[in-house]
Structures are given as C-alpha cells and as structure tokens.
Amino acid sequence: MNTHPYLRAYLAGIFVPTLVLPLILANFIVVRLVLAVPVPFERFIIFPMAVVPSLFGLWNMLYLWFHRRSHLSIGVHGAILPFLGAPIGALIAHQLGILQIGGHGVTYFQLCVVPYALIAVVFLAAVVVYYLVWKYIVGFLNRILGIA
Fold first, then answer.
1. Eight-class DSSP state of 98
2. Contact assessment for residue 114 and residue 108, using Cβ atoms and an 8 Å cutoff
3. Phi, psi of 106 (to 5 degrees)
C-alpha cells in the first residue's frame, strides 16, 4: 500500500477537525441564536472552519515527509502546530479588526477583554490537547492507513 502516501496523510490529518468543528459551530449557533449573545461569532468561526482542516492535513503531510528524515514523534510534531497557528491566527484577527492588543490583555470584537494570563493557560492547554490528539488519534489513523 505505497500508493499516494501524502494523500492518505492529508486525509488522516483532516479527520479530527472535520469532526470537531461542526460541534463548535453548533455551540456558536446556540449561543448566538438561542441565548441571544450579541457577539458576531460568525465572523470568527467561518475562517477557522475553512483553514483548520487543511492545516491539519498539510501538517500531517509535513510529518510524513519529515519522519522519513528524522524521528520526531508525531505527538511532538502536533504540539508544535499551536506555536505556528496561534500567532498567525492572532495576526489575521488583528488585521481584520476582530482582535485588539492592549496593555493587560486582548479585546475580542471590541467587547470581551481576555487577560494575558488566561491566554497563556489556554495556550498551554491547547499544546497538551494537540499533543494528545496527534499522538493517539492522528497517529492511530496514520498506522491504520499504513503511512506511519
């Protein structure tokens, strides 16, 4: 089964965000429409829904390419992704006017102020979650598809 290993790596990579993002969207819809929270979530969620699955798939393809040259574990490889995705996402959000950077924290949608300490804790939690997702789910799918 050596045919199209990068295509199989891409498909294994997009599996998790393709399952999780619709659940996040459903939660946003409930918050926006049922609870009537006046925050324009739709501006925030559409871009990640388009980019994150492709990013995961391309990141898994990159893992396949790197793994043949080095022996970095897939969990560590996945844990590196937030270090690239978070700054790029913050830069795009800042350029679109969704995020303003202040002295004590960041402001989303000119409504919600998030302190830097909370951002650091959430970021570290994201790194741990990415490590676990990549080690156990994406790694499992890579083994099933015969590319690991």
1. S
2. yes
3. -110, 150
Burial (CB count within 10 angstroms: exposed 0-12, middle 13-18, buried 19+), residue 117? exposed
Residues 2 and 11: their CA atoms lie apart, in Å, by: 15
Identity of the amino acid at 134 = W
Region 105-117: mean pLDDT is 84
Match 């969704």 to its residue by tokens.
Answer: 98
3-state helix, strand, coil in the chain (%, to 5): 75, 5, 20
- The reported pTM is 0.84
Domain boundaries, the chain: 5-144
Query: Tell me: the pLDDT tens digits for 118-148?
Result: 999 999 999 999 999 999 999 999 999 888 7
Give Cα separations from 9 to 42, 74, 136 (angstroms): 30, 12, 15
In 3D space, the residue among 133, 145, 136 whose CA is nearest the CA of residue 18 turns out to be 133
Question: From CA 30, how far away is CA 34, in angstroms rounded?
Answer: 5
Closest Cα partner for 46 from 7, 96, 101? 96
